[in-house]
Design goal:
The protein has helices spanning 3-12, 14-45, 50-76, 80-100, 104-132, 138-164, 173-185, 187-194, 205-211, 215-219, 224-251, 256-275, 277-283, 286-303, 310-337, 344-372, 377-396, 405-409. With 410 residues, the protein is mainly α.
Length: 410
């Protein structure tokens, strides 16, 4: 079956398997995001401070950083389903391992394996979109996919907070982590639904090698670097919020449930923006909207340590969440349109590798800043990166053709 025929056939069967993909995405991201907040609390519970917290956060992305591009090559060769199954297993087992962990060392190992599961499920799931649907439909499909991500956050974080309790010495962190492991196991029946997608041809290694472009050649495509940098800065900001808002909460008297509520507000705002992304990209030029999203998120990050009151933080979470909700699907669409079909999963994996690099380097830098400076300094660092990304997008974000980004991507 040719690629175009596969896309057409896949489109006819789309409602079944694509709906299953959204449900699957919701489930695994509920587990990922609930666990990541709980892992922060478990680290603190085991005696780790701000520096250890930054190290734990970085381990989530260390192995995926090295594996993302080879995973993308396998997906481009038609092995998305096996990659997704492996990612499912590496979501469920490490979730249980993190819940069982008696010390920081085991928690670090489980967190790293969980990060590997996340990159496997993410690369394979994202790559199914450009492999299955027309370019004119990518914004909407990626937007819907990332609504599943945000909905998972909206479910996972409050459930984790509800089970863990009100915080402090009374928090029940480990039972909440076991609950997240149970949620992760629900991904298996959703995965079965995804397998209804029509099978694709597995490309032999020799044939694939003839059409493969190197990562450096891909990065040299005009528009690729600003898109990836915007994604990197945004995902690092999300991680900084998730990992360090509990620390802000502890310093200023906000319990587990209050912090979970703030993170949920951010997630709900992301859902709203992702549901409206098609309309927004028709009203505002693509690169201008992307730059405004980075700018808004950066300003929100800079203001978090200035007024750490609940209602102020709630407003900032809504603003940042709306901005973050736009950035990720827009950059997915953009990099996908800059690649030929034989390298689309590789391009998405390079974008993801950039995200993971930011998740290793920036939390590590944040750990140093937090260890030797005020707690709020990590938010200032992340906010400054987002402002830089806004400038990079505005100045160097034009696509490689003569058409405008809005015309090219809508």
């Amino acid at each position: 079956m040719t690629a175009s025929a596969a896309r057409a056939h896949s489109g006819r069967r789309g409602p079944g398997w694509f709906t299953a993909l959204i449900v699957y995405t919701l489930i695994v991201h509920a587990a990922y995001n609930g666990l990541r907040v709980l892992i922060s609390y478990r680290t603190l519970e085991l005696g780790g401070g701000a520096g250890v917290l930054g190290l734990v956060t970085a381990t989530y992305s260390l192995a995926p950083l090295l594996a993302a591009i080879p995973i993308g090559r396998w997906v481009d060769r038609g092995y998305a389903m096996p990659v997704m199954w492996i990612g499912t297993v590496l979501t469920i087992l490490p979730a249980a391992g993190a819940a069982w962990s008696p010390g920081v060392a085991v928690l670090l190992a489980a967190n790293m394996a969980l990060g590997m599961g996340q990159v496997l499920t993410t690369v394979s799931g994202q790559a199914l979109i450009p492999q299955s649907f027309a370019q004119s439909d990518l914004n909407r499909r990626f937007g819907t996919l990332t609504v599943g991500v945000s909905a998972g956050q909206a479910v996972g974080v409050p459930v984790a907070g509800l089970i863990a309790g009100t915080g402090g010495a009374d928090a029940h962190v480990q039972p909440a982590m076991w609950a997240m492991a149970g949620i992760a196991a629900l991904a298996v029946p959703a995965m079965v639904g995804i397998t209804r997608r029509p099978a694709v041809r597995h490309v032999p290694r020799a044939e694939a090698r003839s059409s493969v472009r190197s990562p450096l050649a891909i990065l040299g495509t005009r528009g690729m670097k600003p898109a990836i940098f915007a994604s990197m800065a945004t995902l690092a900001a999300v991680d900084i919020m998730t990992a360090y808002l509990p620390l802000i909460g502890q310093r200023y008297g906000l319990g587990v449930q209050a912090v979970a509520a703030l993170l949920t507000l951010r997630t709900l705002a992301s859902i709203v923006s992702r549901l409206s992304i098609g309309r927004l990209t028709r009203l505002v030029p693509f690169t201008r909207l992307l730059a405004l999203a980075s700018l808004t998120g950066g300003i929100a990050l800079l203001l978090i340590p200035v007024q750490p009151r609940f209602w102020v933080l709630a407003i900032l979470m809504v603003a940042a969440g709306f901005a973050f909700g736009l950035t990720q699907p827009m950059t997915m669409t953009w990099v996908s349109t800059l690649a030929d079909p034989a390298n689309r999963a590789a391009v998405l994996s390079i974008r993801l590798a950039g995200n993971r690099l930011s998740q290793v380097v920036i939390p590590a830098a944040a750990a140093g800043v937090a260890a030797f400076g005020p707690t709020g300094a990590v938010f200032l660092l992340s906010g400054a990166l987002l402002l830089t990304a806004a400038g990079s997008t505005a100045l160097r974000g034009a696509p490689p053709t003569g058409s405008s980004p809005r015309e090219r991507l809508d």
